[in-house]
Design goal:
With 178 residues, the protein is mainly alpha-helical. 52% of the residues lie in helices and 6% in strands.
Length: 178
């Protein structure tokens, strides 16, 4: 004689504990039969009766998060019996600190390279004295139009202008004199 009722496999907790899984089983919604290791770890670390007490004390909407936390901590304790999830958190925190230091060093390098590029560009292409505020002509080079030195806050910058060779090769300076 065949039974007309459908067969519900026992939850992982009842199967592990070798007991009949009743319809109101507190473990059933959180430990499906497809995940037997999840309950095995939780039982090994916390004990089935402690987990059942905890789940019965919680509101139904809080139980799923509690079981996930217990399962995570239990798996971490199985992997690292001394530190558990604190060991994983500490490892990740150290990794974050190391990566932050690397990022800070890379940013410092970027700033240093950017500043050296800007200063090298300024040295290569200074502005004429009438356009540069606070720059005075030191008067070197005569009327040739190039090779002048300008002082900016104690730093001497020299540059050559492209027309310097043209005027000097024809025997005349920028002022038209020989």
């Amino acid at each position: 004689m065949a039974s007309s009722s459908s067969y519900n496999p026992p939850c992982a907790a009842c199967k592990f504990l070798r007991r009949k899984c009743i319809p109101g089983c507190v473990f059933s919604p959180y430990f499906p039969p497809e995940e037997p290791q999840k309950f095995a770890n939780v039982h090994k670390i916390f004990g089935a009766s402690n987990v059942a007490k905890l789940l019965n004390e919680l509101l139904p909407h809080q139980r799923d998060d509690a079981v996930n936390s217990l399962a995570y901590e239990a798996e971490a304790r199985v992997r690292d019996p001394v530190y558990g999830c604190i060991g994983a958190i500490t490892f990740l925190q150290r990794q974050v600190d190391r990566l932050q230091k690397e990022l800070d060093a890379a940013n410092a390098d970027l700033i240093r390279f950017a500043c050296s590029d800007v200063s090298s560009l300024q040295a290569a292409q200074p502005r004429p004295p009438q356009e540069a505020a606070g720059v005075r002509n030191a008067g070197f080079g005569g009327g040739g139009g190039g090779g002048r030195f300008y002082q900016t806050g104690g730093v001497q910058i020299s540059y050559d202008v492209p027309w310097n060779d043209i005027y000097n090769s024809h025997g005349g300076g920028m002022d038209g004199s020989n």
